[in-house]
Every structure is written in C-alpha cells, then in structure tokens.
Amino acid sequence: MSGIQELRNKIKTIKNTQKITKAIKMVATVRLKRAQNALQVSRVLPDKLSTFWQDLYQFPDFQPNHPLIKIKRTIQNITLLVVTSDHGLCGGFNTSIVQKTVSILKNMFSDKNISLISLGNKGSEAFRYRHIPVKKSYIDFFEDYSLDKVSSLVHEFSQDMINGVTDAVFVIYSKLGLSYSTKIEMEQILPLTIEKNEKLIENKKKYCWIIEPTVDDVVTHTCELFLISEMHRIFHESLACEQLARMQAMEVATQNADETLQNLGILFNKTRQELITKEMLEVISGTESME
User: Fold this and answer.
1) Distance in angstroms (rounded) separating the CA atoms of residues 78 and 83
2) What does the DSSP 8-state code read for residue 75?
3) Fold of 23-249
4) DSSP code for 109
5) Strands 168-176 and 77-83
6) Cβ atoms 215, 59 nearer than 8 A
7) Omega cis (within 30) before 191
8) If both were cysteines, with which of 28, 59, 115, 138 could 246 make a disulfide (CB 3.0 to 4.6 Å apart)?
9) Which of 209, 257, 246 is nearest to 28 (CA)?
C-alpha cells in the first residue's frame, strides 16, 4: 500500500508543478509580445540617428579625431559589458551567454586587459562561480528599468574613452532574429564609426555653421545620444530573448511533465493491479485452507 500512496503523491506533485509551468509560460508569452513591440520601437531611433552622422562632416574644420569616434590602431584596454537576465527559469539563455564570454576571454581577448562589467544577476553569479574577476556588477538592473539608468551607463563608458581608461567597449548580448530565432552577438559600441558622404563633404562650404559651445561638445553629446538609443535597443533585444527562452523552457517542462504523468499512470495501474491480484490470491488461499 505504501507504493500506491507514494505514486499518488508523485502524481499529485507533478500535476501541481505542471500548473506552475503552464502559468509561467502564459505570463512569458504575454511579456514576449510586449517586449517585441518595445523592441520594434527601440530599433527606429538608432537607424534615424545613423543618418545624422553625415552632418558632422559638414562642420567646418571637422576632423574625426574625437576619442569617441577615433579608431585606434592598437587596442589593449577593453571594457566588456555582458548582458544577462535578473531571473532564472529561462533554459540555457544565461548559460550560453556566459559560455560565449568565457570563450572570447580565452581566445580573442587572451592578450588584452579586460574590464568585465556584468549586467544581470545571473551573469554575476556565474562569473563569481567560475572565479572570473568582474570590475562592476549591476544587480536588478531590469527591475526598475529606465532611460536614466542607460544614460548613466553610457556616460560612464564615454568618460572612460575620453580619459583614455579604455580603448574600446564591447557588448555581449542575445539578439532576437526572425521566426523566434536568437543569436549571441558581440558588438563594438565604442569608438563609433562614421561613414563619409562625399557629396555632403563637397557642399559643406555652402553653409554658414554656428556651433555652440564647441565641435567636441557637439560630438560628445551626439555620440552619447546615439549610444543611449543603441544600448536601449540592445537591452530590449535581451529582454525579448529572455522571455522567448522562458516561454520555450516552460513549454518543454510542461511536455516533460505530461510524459512523466503518463509513465507514472501506467506504473500506478500496474502496481494497483498487482496489489489486487495479490489480495485475491490471499483470499483464495485462506478459503482453501479453511476447507
């Protein structure tokens, strides 16, 4: 009888767990749709601002030697921002990002001075477990997400570039593609690259530009505005991928629960049948002995 009761408890526990996975999946599906809408909006401004770069070359005596746009021949000091999630239950979302980071640190940046910045609770925990030194960790960054947080982060990166603390800034994150596909990307956000438009450069003498306070200040603020919009897009890419991974993980968990319930149901019926057969044999044996 203890075996029957144990199987009943297991079946009850799995059914309760399945209810939880279904609920999490429904919530993740709603949040994914919301994240996709926010992502589409966040992709608009970086595209529009990229065309604004052409106007910089129309400034008189403009030279692309500002620290935020000047490409250095040798890059030794690198700031690496790794974007993970604050919460779990999202399959291999965080694991794949951490593994990608470890691979890059061992191979591509093995001879560089790396300042690793972790954004997301799960990434910080994983790096601490692997004994990878982290310069700075942002905990619960997405709990109260705002553009002020993004602006503060971008300003910190910009000042490090201007002061010569770092030579380049890279971001590792998960990017949402077509048909619910995701890919781990490493993107260089600083220094920025500006593509020249020769026609605009030829016509720059036709205009009388008034620049206040200085060209460097205009370039700095423009770069920071572009970076804020770009980082805002990157964070929404990560949030959308996180919800997608959580939805898929909970769907797999629910299916596994169904399979486990089927196997336990067969085992429960088999055990119960064996118990009934055993009791019938005992009754028959007792009746025969009395005769």
Assistant:
1) 16
2) -
3) Pyruvate Kinase; Chain: A, domain 1 (3.40.1380)
4) T
5) parallel
6) yes
7) yes
8) 28
9) 246
Length reported for the chain: 291
Confidence of residue 277 (pLDDT cuts 50, 70, 90): confident
Which tokens hold the place of 194?
Answer: 């500006």
Stated pTM of the model: 0.84
pLDDT 10s digits, 235-253: 999 999 999 999 999 999 9
Taking phi over 0 as left and psi of -120 to 50 as alpha, with beta for the rest, 62 belongs to beta
What are the structural domain ranges in the chain?
23-249
The Cβ of residue 196 has, within 10 Å, a number of other Cβ atoms equal to 12
DSSP-assigned letter for residue 72? P
Joined together, the tokens standing for residue 140 give 């619960």
What is the amino acid identity at position 218?
V
Rounded to a whole number of angstroms, the distance between the first and last alpha carbons of the chain is: 29
Q: At what angle do helices 44-56 and 215-290 cross, to 10 degrees?
A: 160
